[in-house]
Specification:
Elements: H1 32-36, H2 39-46, E1 51-54, E2 59-62, H3 65-73, E3 78-79, H4 103-116, H5 120-138, E4 144-145, H6 146-163, H7 170-183, H8 193-216, H9 223-229, H10 236-267, H11 271-276, H12 281-291, E5 297-301, E6 305-307, E7 310-312, E8 317-320, H13 322-325, H14 360-377, E9 382-383, E10 388-389, E11 398-400, E12 402-404
Parallel strand pairs: 2-8
Antiparallel strand pairs: 1-2, 3-5, 4-12, 5-8, 6-7, 9-12, 10-11
Helix pairs in contact: 4-9, 5-6, 5-14, 6-10, 7-8, 8-9, 8-10, 10-12, 10-14
The structure holds protoporphyrin IX containing FE.
């Protein structure tokens, strides 16, 4: 089994590539210091060059914005569908994220149609009401966990609202979802791979049951109902698994952005005061650049080529470090500084190319709504103690942040 960092990869049986072992900075990605402040390892990752070999991951690694963007954009030479390299992909993994054209194009088109068909004004209204109500309730407590008591239940409510289904019980759903995120780190923690595959299958069962219900009882608003009626030749398996990706991304990525972004603003003097002047598009872009959860993606090379001056051979893996690329000093002035008025901001926090994020609209809607309410209704908020970050290098997130609103 070849080790990776990134979303949903199973690449057994590809050729080994003998490379000289050396002190690989990738090994330190899970240290508490780096999880708390990724800037501490950036120089070591960047000094290796635009593309370099990681013996830990058995993979090429890109850290520069140009190289990372080029790999994400080039679906001809770099695959998300590992069957293009002769790999078997388990059924439960065949989703929008793990397919390439033409299958990817077909399912992505159907999903885009489902997103577009939603009542976004209504979604925004309900989101504002829910955020204000939740914060007003929590403000009555002396303090609370911003992630467990607010961001996680809110993100689950937001994505199931969009899907048009009842939210699953968070106590049951949370650990299953976390097992999938842990497995994204199987390059560093191989023991997470199998539980991750089982968890994906379990969530696919859930989204499959939603599709069945929608087919039997039509008339509920939301993406599931739309997709039950409009799936234009996309197989039920791919549809069910792609709904799993939406559920999972919508919950994990959105809640992690909220936690990371609040910690970043609490760390940066004047940031919350600046947001009181308005949570602008530029401020949101900067929060995704600086505090976005997605740190890495993986692709397989299907055709010998060159990246960052390195020869990449067919069958080799390229791990693109999205988080490091978003702080490339050749592109971003003062890259490790949160600048909520940054104008030139070509970040890739939502990905690039054919697999770029489909959910950036709901993610930004939720983030804007939360920060607007926090800085306007609760200007006196303060952290109680240090935040605790999750032990995950691929999808960075806060485990616990105790907060006082009054
Ligand atoms: C802050 C929150 C979010 C961030 C930072 C984020 C980031 C990303 C990134 C980087 C990718 C590209 C993955 C790749 O290249 O393989 C991606 C893909 C995707 N995201 Fe998001 N995402 C977020 C929220 C959401 C939400 C709320 C949804 C759904 C409601 C969503 C749905 C998706 C889907 C379906 C894909 C796969 C697209 C494809 O492979 O064609 N994401 N996301």
């Amino acid at each position: 089994m070849r080790k990776t960092l990134g979303l949903e990869v199973d690449i057994t049986g590809l050729p080994e590539s003998p490379k000289p072992p050396d002190a690989d900075p990738i090994k330190d990605l899970l240290t508490p210091r780096v999880l708390r402040e990724p800037a501490t390892i950036r120089a070591r990752l960047r000094e290796r060059g635009d593309a370099w070999w990681s013996p830990t991951l058995d993979s090429w690694v890109t850290a520069g914005l140009a190289e990372t963007t080029a790999v994400l954009r080039d679906a001809d030479r770099f695959c998300s569908d590992w069957r293009r390299l002769g790999e078997d992909t388990p059924d439960s993994s065949l989703s929008v994220q793990a397919l390439d054209a033409p299958e990817h194009t077909a399912v992505r088109q159907v999903l885009v149609g489902a997103f577009r068909a939603q009542d976004w004004a209504g979604i925004e209204k309900r989101t504002v009401a829910s955020v204000n109500e939740r914060l007003a309730k929590l403000a009555r407590r002396s303090s609370f966990d911003f992630v467990g008591d607010f961001a996680a239940p809110l993100a689950l409510e937001a994505v199931t609202n969009l899907l048009g289904v009842d939210p699953p019980d968070l106590d049951r759903f949370g650990p299953v979802s976390a097992a999938i995120v842990d497995a994204m780190d199987d390059g560093l923690r191989p023991e997470t791979a199998e539980p991750g595959t089982a968890a994906r299958a379990e969530l696919a069962e859930l989204t499959g049951s939603w599709l069945t219900d929608a087919a039997n009882h039509r008339g509920r608003d939301g993406m599931v109902d739309y997709l039950a009626a409009h799936h234009d030749g996309v197989s039920r398996t791919v549809l069910r698994n792609s709904l799993r990706v939406i559920l999972h991304s919508g919950y994990e990525s959105s809640s992690r952005l909220l936690g990371n972004a609040l910690v970043a603003c609490l760390d940066a003097p004047g940031a919350l005061a600046r947001l009181r002047g308005g949570v602008t598009d530029a401020a949101l872009r900067e929060l995704v650049r600086f505090a976005g959860p997605v740190q890495a993606e993986a692709r397989g090379c299907v055709e010998d080529t060159e990246v960052g001056g390195q020869p990449i051979r067919r069958g080799e893996v390229v791990t693109v470090l999205v988080g490091v690329a978003n702080r490339d000093p050749r592109v971003f002035a003062y890259p490790d500084t949160l600048d909520l008025d940054r104008q030139h901001n070509p970040h890739i926090g939502f990905g690039r190319g054919p697999h770029a994020c489909l959910g950036s609209l709901p993610a930004l809607l939720l983030t804007r709504t939360v920060f607007t309410a926090l800085v306007r209704e609760h200007p006196g908020m303060e952290p109680v103690g240090e935040p605790i970050f999750r032990r995950n290098a691929t999808l960075r997130g806060v485990e616990h942040l105790e907060l006082r609103l009054r």
